[in-house]
């Protein structure tokens, strides 16, 4: 994948940890206990359904193909009878790129269906029946046959138990997607045949694992209509309320003046622009944890405020990332830079050149301001 702000933030976490042999976790929000994935992604999920003899899993509203060892898009297309050019374009991958064993390839349209009851054939009846079996026992009900429904004019809803198919957007990672859908990242990797680095690409379609937990059991008592606590009779219904005489209101006292103290921290204008250029992507919590400033390759990158170099590290593409620690628990992050002119532990002054912008098509600075481990909007801090 190309360099993205979310990946840069992950490398920043890696640099602060100094050494870590675990998969990279992009959750920067925890200030205690180290950097861990959100607890919400620890739930168990079911296994991915088996594919048919052609490597296809058929769901009620879509189909996917499962790659074999040594497959390319052309090989998968030939095996299932699909257009290789359309298949490659739909999945955002070159036709000749080798696929991982077990990697999921989304199909733009349906191919021939497997025979009912065979591996890879997932029908609505099976999915709905599994959901009913997993739910608490309910009283038997009487059903009657209905007339066949008329042809629908809108897209059919996703069947019960059918996995969501998520298309990867620029800046997303396996970790952010797992947290978005509340599933373990390892389950996401197993369902989609991801590599040990959990790398994904823009335009890739991912199957979101289906939770393997039963429906919640109702614990609250249910009473029949008309039963339960009796409603008390309002006093006004049995005896009228006495007439109330209201005295005129006294003149309200004059409120004492309120003195407001000065704020403990003033964000406005405490930092300088780290690079002279144009902001091409603004801050958006959860999507872009900083701002991206485009400028000519080789443009000086300056320290936004005085501080100490806390970390110098690299992302997965060997692109340097620099972190400076400031007073009041603030940190600034400078990513997509080159020719770093400082080293870890150095003191830097406000406006001091610390690096340059990288050359090439991605000549922009990804700049973050963090209050502890939480990202904040850098714009109020900049002059």
Secondary structure: elements and pairs:
Layout: H1 5-17, E1 56-58, E2 63-66, H2 73-80, H3 84-91, E3 104-106, H4 124-134, E4 165-167, H5 174-181, H6 185-192, E5 205-207, H7 235-238, E6 278-281, E7 291-294, E8 300-302, E9 307-314, E10 320-326, E11 330-335, E12 337-338, E13 347-348, E14 353-357, E15 364-371, E16 374-376
Antiparallel strand pairs: 1-2, 2-3, 4-5, 6-7, 7-15, 8-14, 9-10, 9-13, 10-11, 11-15, 12-14, 15-16
Helix pairs in contact: 2-3
Low-confidence segments = 11-42, 124-132, 134-144, 149-160, 213-221, 260-267
In CATH, the topology of the domain at 56-134 and 163-207 is named Membrane-bound Lytic Murein Transglycosylase D, Chain A
What portion of residues belong to β-strands? Answer: 15-25%
Terminal residue distance: 34 Å
The pLDDT mean sits at 73
Overall geometry: flat
Tell me the number of helical segments per DSSP (H or I, 4 or more residues long): 7
């Amino acid at each position: 994948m190309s360099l993205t702000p979310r990946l840069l933030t992950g490398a920043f976490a890696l640099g602060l940890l100094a050494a870590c042999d675990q998969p990279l976790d992009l959750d920067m929000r925890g200030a205690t206990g180290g950097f861990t994935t959100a607890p919400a992604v620890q739930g168990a999920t079911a296994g991915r359904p088996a594919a048919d003899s052609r490597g296809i899993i058929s769901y009620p509203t879509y189909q996917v193909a499962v790659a074999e060892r040594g497959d390319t898009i052309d090989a998968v297309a030939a095996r299932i009878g699909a257009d290789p050019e359309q298949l490659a374009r739909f999945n955002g991958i070159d036709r000749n790129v080798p696929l991982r064993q077990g990697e999921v390839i989304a199909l733009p349209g349906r191919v021939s269906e497997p025979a009912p009851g065979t591996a890879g054939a997932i029908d609505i009846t099976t999915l709905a029946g599994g959901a009913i079996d997993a739910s608490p026992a309910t009283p038997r009900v009487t059903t009657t046959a209905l007339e066949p429904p008329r042809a629908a004019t809108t897209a059919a809803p996703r069947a019960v138990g059918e996995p969501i198919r998520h298309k990867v957007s620029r800046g997303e990672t396996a970790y952010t997607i797992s947290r978005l859908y509340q599933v373990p990242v390892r389950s996401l990797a197993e369902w989609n045949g991801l590599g040990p680095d959990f790398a994904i690409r823009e335009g890739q379609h991912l199957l979101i694992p289906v939770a393997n937990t039963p429906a919640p059991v109702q614990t609250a008592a249910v009473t029949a209509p008309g039963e339960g606590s009796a409603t008390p009779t309002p006093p006004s219904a049995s005896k009228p309320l006495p007439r109330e005489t209201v005295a005129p209101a006294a003149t309200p006292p004059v409120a004492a003046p309120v003195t407001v103290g000065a704020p403990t921290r003033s964000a406005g204008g405490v930092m300088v622009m780290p690079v002279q250029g144009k902001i091409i992507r603004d801050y958006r919590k959860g999507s872009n944890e900083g701002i991206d400033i485009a400028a000519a390759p080789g443009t000086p990158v300056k320290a936004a405020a005085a501080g100490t170099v806390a970390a110098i590290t690299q992302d997965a593409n060997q692109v340097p990332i620099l972190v400076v620690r400031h007073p009041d628990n603030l940190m600034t992050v400078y990513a997509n830079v080159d020719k770093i002119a400082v080293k870890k532990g150095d003191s830097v002054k406000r406006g001091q050149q610390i690096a340059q912008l990288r050359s090439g098509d991605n000549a922009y600075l990804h700049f973050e301001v963090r209050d502890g481990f939480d990202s904040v909007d850098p714009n109020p801090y900049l002059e």
